[in-house]
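User: We ran a pulldown and think these components assemble together. Before we commit to crystallization trials, I'd like a predicted model of the whole complex to look at. Sequences follow.
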Amino acid sequence: EVQLVQSGAEVKKPGESLKISCKGSGYSFTSYWIGWVRQMPGKGLEWMGIIYPGDSDTRYSPSFQGQVTISADKSISTAYLQWSSLKASDTAMYYCARDNTVTDDAFDIWGQGTMVTVSS
Amino acid sequence: EIVMTQSPATLSVSPGERATLSCRASQSVSSNLAWYQQKPGQAPRLLIYGASTRATGIPARFSGSGSGTEFTLTISSLQSEDFAVYYCQQYNNWPPTFGGGTKVEIK
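Assistant: Here's a predicted model for the assembly, 227 residues in total across the polymer chains.
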């Protein structure tokens, strides 16, 4: 079964760092782009950025450039989203998703989401 | 950045009725548009890509149409499991962008 499994919920304080993960299985992890999507509480979806685990080519939406870092470790089929200094406004659900050229680069497989809560 | 505008924000429909959701792009996105369904507490699910192609396992009651700047998602006969929020997304221009969503609720 093709799936993306994300790390568990996190509760952090402002200023702390965080790295959340997304592990792929059931397919060739290095052959598909993995994207990250933010969903703030009660709000819509926001496209953050994307990485190609095969060569770590990474691209960011201008809205998120410099705010987060996307990386991947192809040896363990895992992509990451990290913050160096969290803000309360980073409180959101974060989804990883697979970009598939078969579906014209739409996200065909989604992780279950990681809830990040930033509060003092 | 291309702005995707969905209407209406909320659509009240009775089970068995047809639902028509609209998505407008601020500039042409050709047919590079997807529709996703999101139920409470769940991740989004891909319904339609390429504006009109159903993703694997999606029932035939879901159909997409349009190109350029105007797109429509039609649910021909609403089932109880179809009450959810629907998002459109363009992936023609960088960065890809989502619409604000349409909530389909029970009338």
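The two ends of chain A are 40 Å apart (CA to CA). That may be worth checking against your pulldown data before setting up trials.

User: Thanks, that helps.
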